[in-house]
Fold each of these.
Amino acid sequence: MDKKLERLNNTRVNAIIEKYAALCEPAKITVIDDSEEDAALLRSRALEGGEEHLLAMKGHTYHFDGIQDQARDKAHTKLLLSKPINFGFETATLDRQTGLDEIEKLLKGIMKGKEMFVRFCCLGPVNSPFSILALQLTDSAYVAHSEDLLYRRGYEAFRTAKNPDDFFVFIHSAGELENGVTKNVDQRRVYVDLEANRVFSINNQYAGNSVGLKKLAFRLAIAKAHKEGWLAEHMFLMGVHGKNNRITYFSGAYPSACGKTSTAMIPGQSIVGDDIIYAREFDGELRAVNVERGIFGIIENVNAIDDPEIFNVLTHEGECIFSNVLISDDGVPYWTGSEVDPPKAGGKHYTGHWTPDMKDVPVSHKNARYTISLESLANRDPVLHDPKGVRLDAMVYGGRDSDTSVPVLEAKSWAHGVLLGACVESETTAATIGQEGVRKHNPYANLDFMTLPLSKYVADHLELEKRLKTTPKVFVTNYFLKDANGKFLNHKLDKKVWMLWAEARVHGEVDAIETPVGFIPKYEDLVPLFQSALNKSYSREDYDAQFTVRIEAYRAKWQRMANIFAKYDMPDKFEDELKAQIERLK
């Protein structure tokens, strides 16, 4: 037996490795511990195997996924269920035994001639009441390397675990490779086995499918949180800096392209995490942690003006993996929206060789990514690894809405906030396939990852209030309001003011105007915030245009919501809040 496994002394881990080694038939098994030597081994293996390549900048590498393997594969991502569940929304499921039989056949010999890496990670801070241990088996050094940047190392946590049998399991194989990318994409499968807390992901390399500890583990965590009485949320976690060096912690859920990362990275504030949190009640307080220790972020439009902290990391020495961007002949990455012109000679591209005259092919894929550790960011909050997490004083929900929602408002109560979170909408953009401006309902910005009926998810949020001495304040933001001519009414930097106003509301430092849809700022409170935060004046005309409550548009929105939730068996308290909201608008 491997000495590292012998030292671990975990019979369940050994049994899982033995089972899948016999099934997948790797040529070699390499167990990874928490040492820097093993982390360096993963980086070298990724380079030796051609999954990653060196760039000119020290510590930077790049990776290409196959042309058909550059996004989450929703069609082949399924929940394995022994009994059907009425989720109330459309989600892909499969009979559990049918799925397990199929995946075992596809796994047979899938790692022949390859090296199986055994990784131990921890979701959430190590040695914390939030911690969930995770075992990853993969034949991709790129995946294992990515996880080293994105998650806390967990070998020692496994070794000292009080309950050594309680962990998530992830089985991944990139499958047969051709020119360094997955060949058999028709056999790509991502199966989430909720009953056994494990995920199978095969014949893919794109990290959203292959790095099981991210959104796939999130699906498992949502189900686990429901059973155990805590929350797993698709939220950033950040410190908003108020008066006298005060830091107030906010979480926030936004659908894609609605400002989630840019909010978490507002200049002058501090980031704890950009994607997923666990939140638990302790002594009547709601506390939260970032599940991850890194960022797997969309690189399109990251530039020195709008994203100075991230751009600085991407253009200086330090560990970073670029995926599906343009690589010049001298080893420099370029991407769409960087405000840096690509070389006239072009370079290596996920499609082959790219040149500027290929007008219909963007410099980088729309889903091109960067993978970095949060430690590399200058604005990282020092509480990142605190095992106790942070006290969560506010939650914020955002959407993309051109004609209805004001830029920021505060919910009237916790239950009203739960309603507002359940009614998040986002308009499709020109970059989305299909018609522009179509509103998509995305409750809690989490519909893609929900593994229990929405009614139960909502009930968990409502029930939480009973265990808390003080509930977090709930806010809703909208950065995309337009005037009659289609011009944005907000500047992209204005979000800093909205968050600072919300922070002041948490501490009772500013008053607000009560409207039928919630509390909105007073003009006289926003003027000094615009001056101190952005060094600019704020006109009464701008305020009136932005914070006029458009009653008919709001009535239309809430009628849409009433029609949607009529199909669900929602908790009585939720139904009461929905009715009350509609009545106030009347």
Amino acid sequence: MRSIELLSPAKNIECGLAAINHGADAVYIGASKFGARSAAGNSVADIEQLAAYAHKFNARVYAAVNTILFDKELDEVQKLIWQLYEAGADALIIQDMGILQMDLPPIALHASTQTDNRTVEKVRFFEQAGFSQVVLARELSLAQINEIATHATVPLECFVHGALCVSYSGQCYISQALCGRSANRGECAQYCRLPYDLVDSDGNVLMKNKHLLSLKDLNLSDYLADLLEAGVSSFKIEGRLKEADYVKNITAYYRQRLDAVLEGSYQYKKSSSGSTTFFFTPNPEKSFHRGSTSYFLHGRDKDIASFDTPKSVGERIGKVTDMGKNYFYVGTKLPIHNGDGLCYVMPSGELAGFRVNRVDETRIYPLEMPRFKKGTEIFRNLDSEFEKLLGKKSSERKIGVSLQFTETETGFKLQATDEDNCLAELEITANKERANNKEQALDNIKAQLSKFGNSDFTVTGIELSLSEAFFIPSSILSEMRRGIITELDRLRSSLHQRMVREKNTSTHPYPVSSLSYLGNVSNHLAEEFYRLHGVEEIAPAFEQESTQDVPLMFTKHCLKYQLGFCAKEENCDKSNIPFALSLKYKETLLALKFDCAKCEMEVLYKK
């Protein structure tokens, strides 16, 4: 059976604990430095605390150390990696191959999506280099994923939910070029979310003030079974900058969806222990999202962009049916609450929002009356009642335990076997006093032993094997119960096994023999690694030596296709295709180049 994991993000330890409690099999979290989200760093002490908690459920913690590195940082990174290993991290997510030339602990390595994993050759290379998991590019189709899985045995990790980078990950340099903030160093300024004018070679404005590089958010929850069949083993939720409420809701939602697929399967099994009870109904529409897309999973699709706004739109409520001076009505069956955040798209295309001050039956009174008309569609991007639910205890994760209570020559023995077949035993010496009320005595034994309360365990069954019914004081039974919980905790603390990475000295050839700035080689150890694997020409990273007149972004999001100018499409008016297109933001001009053979668009900076 293939082990399947649901992998959730953690901005901090609060988010990490929430992810585990809401059903994650694994959590990825940024280390104190050198993570691809520089604003989401965490101390080694916090990661140690998170790992200790996760390991109770046989769940894992992956530390992201996935920026490119400079020579002056290498010693610090090597020291940090040892600290993370000693803290209990199960794996490192890395981009910089210089790390493989360091003196490393035997910690598992995952190839970050920043390593641009789109081909069989690239994934096979990382497999042979000793990586234990490879994060696939988001742009792959089911057929492409299946092709990779057919030719590689390394577990494949696939994004299933969250924000989409418009460029291939690890291949975007626009932020570095325009403001000196490198995406490959975790400092992306998100130029893809800005509004642009689309202009042709004559300076004509074809579209004005639209977020032309901004994509909707990924949602593959309907295709988990397809992804399993294609060969995916790890389902990743994006969001290392998101707060705990987002992590709770989205993790819970995917836990339920994935469990429904795994239930009764003879091919797949959940990779961690315990079952989760939710005290709310997970709903991804109630968390931050820009609209949903399956991206390129089933081939090219026009419905992937979010031109009007990069902000969260939320769930559709209904249309304005009537309005007064300071209130309005919406045609909806959904309850609206005081404090809800509602929004709508203005005629200009921009998103406008407002807060609900109070609701009187079906009348909605906003704090300030918005300027819309009848028929305007209303969305809710903040559900105050839902947020209150998430602010309380919203889940409970427990490990199933079956109990066996038997008598011994000198007293009684309690055995507890958990769902991972971890067996704990506890014996006591006690007088055997025959009970006056047999049924009441047996019921009390079961009731007292089953009170596992706030522990990590829940009793799924209890078996009594006694020659007759005995009266046993509740205090003794409670003492046995507490003792067996302590023993189970002790045994399970040694149950979790980390994957051990053997030192790999292979020199198998890299898929290409020369690397341009796209190779992101920024230190001498990375250069040493690639040369050992047959790369002869190595250019410095863009962050070290800014290259002029080269593409700064590579994307499958093609504006010609989105706007009906693709010559490959049958309904395209080929006589009306613009000769050249550019994006303009204030004084910044970005030229667009179209590689129609690859169905890709490139973005270049024009000074």
